Amino acid sequence: MMSSPVFSQLPEGRSKEIVEAATGVFARYGFARVTMADLAKAVGISRTALYPLFANKAEVFDAVVRNHAAGFVIAVRSGLAAHASLETKLRFACEHLIVPGFEFVQAMPDARDLFDLDVPAVRDVYAAIHAVLVEIIEPYTDGRGVDVETLVRATTASLRSFKEIAADTADLRQLIGVQVSLIVSRLEQGIDRRGAVAKE
After folding, report:
1. What CATH number has the domain spanning 5-190?
2. Which residues pair with 85 in a beta bridge?
């Protein structure tokens, strides 16, 4: 579903070079401390050369978040085919969408605002995650009255909270495993042991 907002206006050409350089700057210093001069210096251009491409650092930050997230979403969609069951697909998707961001912030605490829900691009990222999880779960509901949208909303909210309370990566993976087990348990009446939709 490449029509997701996270894929809109992804940088190309010179803009992509700027975004790639800016990623490291924002990761090291966070949004508040970075200036357009810092971003221009990281790319090796003047501020006057930067402004025709990005009006302000908020635009650069928006592009950084979208570019970073799009890569993860594409990688998850590409990797799903290697997993046969609902449980393994969900675990793979949740871990690959959530764990890297958690580890990133653990290593660089000033990068926490890269995941601030007040930023429109970050909200779009979670909307993209929501869409991926819906795509995974829907084929296993088989018209059994499961409210997939609500189930996934609860799941994405849980994943966000796990990032705040997890002690470390191992703890985060364990919490994700519990959440995945709850979803599978909710749907298990419609799933046989091979992970396919059961036929009545």
Report:
1. 1.10.357.10
2. none
Mean pLDDT per 10-residue interval, the chain, length 200 residues: 52 81 87 91 92 92 84 87 93 91 82 71 83 91 80 92 93 96 81 44
Rounded to 5 degrees, φ, ψ at 105 are -70, -35
195: which DSSP letter?
A: S
Beta bridge partners of 197: 191
Give domain limits for the chain: 5-190
Cβ-count burial of 161 within 10 angstroms (0-12 exposed, 13-18 middle, 19+ buried)?
A: exposed
Residue type, 97: L
pTM score of the predicted model:
0.75
Phi, psi of 191 (to 5 degrees): -130, 130
pLDDT at residue 9 in the model:
57
Phi, then psi, of 27 in degrees rounded to 5 = -65, -35
Residue 144 token pair: 């059994």
Distant-in-sequence, close-in-space partners of 77: CB < 8 Å, separation ≥ 6: 132
Q: At which residue do the structure tokens 């985060």 appear?
A: 172
